[in-house]
Amino acid sequence: MPRKLESPVHTQMAVAVFKNSLGGEYRGNQSMEGKSSRRRRVFVQTETGCVLGMELDRSDNAHTVKRRLQIALNVPTEESSLTFGDMVLKNDLSAVRHDSPLLLTRNFMHRSSSTPCLSPTGRDIQQKDKSGPIEILSHSSRFAQVKQIVHDIVKAMKVGVDPLPVHSGLGGAYYFRNSCGESVAIIKPTDEEPFAPNNPKGFVGKALGQPGLKLSVRVGETGFREVAAYLLDYDHFANVPPTALVKVTHSIFNVNDGVNGNKQKGVKAVSKIASFQQYIPHDFDASDHGTSSFPVAAVHRIGILDIRILNTDRHAGNLLVRKLDGVGRFGQVELIPIDHGLCLPESLEDPYFEWIHWPQASIPFSEDELEYIKKLDPIRDSEMLRSELPMIREACLRVLVLCTIFLKEAAAYGLCLAEIGEMMSREFRSGEEDPSELELVCIEARMLIAEREVFSPKSEGGIDEFQFSMDYEEGGYAFSPKMDSADFMSGSPFHYGFGSGNGRSPLSTLDESFEEELESEDEEDKRHVGNAAAFERKPSVLKLSASLKNISLGEKKQKHANFTGTKPDNRYLGNTSSGHRSANEQLPVSASFVKVADMNEEEWTMFRDKFQELLSPAFAKRKSITLSQRQSQRLGTSCQF
Ligand SMILES: Nc1ncnc2c1ncn2[C@@H]1O[C@H](COP(=O)(O)OP(=O)(O)OP(=O)(O)O)[C@@H](O)[C@H]1O
């Protein structure tokens, strides 16, 4: 055994800061800041939620990290990968920054709720944790407010003020309090999200890293999205409460026993990676109150944020309302947007914008709002997020870039919030889901760059090879959920707070995905028909561009069906998923009409340019639809604002 692996393990249940052979003891953030850059602390999380803090030095590699995990947590680490966002870490750990959360994932595809939980019992490894009870996983000044709240909570914990569990919502959440007993923060551990191994409300069954409630958002990855929404909310424009990623240690947190998903009793302090958000005192949420009193500017600002981040979960319960005048008259309420865990999906998705039919959303943007939108720079945003949240996936950033470009161009064209939101939303007709107008533009842009590659003299394989690879490299569906629909239906909390506007819910998306999974098996058979058949399909693929050019809203479904079969099978959009998982494992193909992760840098740049070019005709079409709708409904001057 290498010398450094013999060093003592400091851990307390799932808590640990692993001291390496350099012998230094971790004493919190301050001491790390003073140390040389040779030493970095990281937090390694297993798929079942155990967290081990350890200090790395330059000679460390994935193997040594895994060995330490094996010793400290008694978990098998063979056949597993150490991942950091999109990256699978091998020998070189230089990309891993101080305080980064890493994930240990097993390489087998079909994991289920019956997979034994690897949470340590604590008996073998109980030692004192050297780190503080709450540590912000960043030293950025952007989290100054959070730092102050953390300080207050730690003081309160020392005098015995304990957190309280939050009963609403599907995930595990806890109100942490100050010395006066007032709630000052809400903490949501990443391993207690819906379907995550330690969810306290019975919604378990998946490992961290697998597709979650939304198929394009992995289990355990909602925390960094909450932080991303806060970081992107420049000048506190939309009023997102200060949010950070933390490592937090407390006995209140939930740990399930792995086999049945039952709560473990008598568990001592456990460490979790969690989102930490300032608690904002409020009077009610937007589902409890008429929306007509909401200020136009507040609705616009939240809508602008939702569009940029493609929020798939802006239901009324995720808008807190505070009365400013004690009564809550028109304009005298403040809106606080919360719960951004399902934003920035890894591929274009159907967003959920509760505000879409509110009259405020049909009022044109103000000069200030247009100025704010004009100044948005999605490339700069991406760089900022990469630097503040190094685990963020490139696919999420590409979605941010596309949606921000879409917003900027649409606002400059003169579209209002409701029109932009509608263009991003899918339509459901006769039980079928149509791609949104935004997605159609993306499909068209991908078609055009694919055609360009086919006809380019530089194209190496020529048409046959190109077509063959399109047909054979499309995404295999790697994820096989073990829960059946009965499992999903069994918990009434699923009916809580979702999709009140259009009757859709994440549940229906899940059901659809199962159907599509079955269908994709048929597709799989069809794919293995050989090169000749693949070549046969070429003309229809090449014709798609032309056929989509004159697409109208009413024709969308039909045209799309002509292209892809009957469902979104994305022959342009998928990628191979082998028998082994990687950090960049593709999400299920059926989750999206448009993928963004599978393009290389050059394709992505070409795609972005094409996308931008295609926007103005799409906006013109939308404007004419709005006008004709207004005429037919005689709504022209009925607006009350
Ligand atoms: N920043 C905050 N300030 C005050 N209360 C909050 C805050 N964030 C969340 N809450 C309260 O906690 C409840 C649960 O939070 P949240 O909706 O974020 O959890 P969730 O498990 O993600 O819920 P859902 O299942 O609706 O997605 C909210 O309904 C709200 O009442």
TrEMBL record:
Question: Among its keywords, does the record have ATP-binding?
Answer: yes
Give positions of region: Disordered: 506-527, 557-586
Is Nucleotide-binding one of the keywords? yes
Concerning InterPro entries, the annotation shows: P4KG1-8, PI3/4_kinase_cat_dom, Ubiquitin-like_domsf
Taxonomic superkingdom: Eukaryota
Keywords in UniProt for this one? ATP-binding, Kinase, Nucleotide-binding, Transferase
Task: List where the protein spans the membrane.
Answer: none
Enumerate the spans annotated as PI3K/PI4K catalytic domain: 160-457
Could you tell me one molecular function GO term of this UniProt entry? ATP binding
Compositional bias, Acidic residues, is annotated for 512-524
Amino acid composition bias (Polar residues), ranges on this chain:
561-586
What EC number(s) has UniProt assigned to this enzyme? 2.7.1.67
SUPFAM superfamilies tied to this protein: Ubiquitin-like
Q: Which family does it belong to?
A: Belongs to the PI3/PI4-kinase family. Type II PI4K subfamily.
Q: What is this protein called?
A: 1-phosphatidylinositol 4-kinase
Species per Swiss-Prot/TrEMBL record: Lithospermum erythrorhizon (Purple gromwell)
The uppermost taxa in this organism's lineage are:
Eukaryota, Viridiplantae, Streptophyta, Embryophyta, Tracheophyta
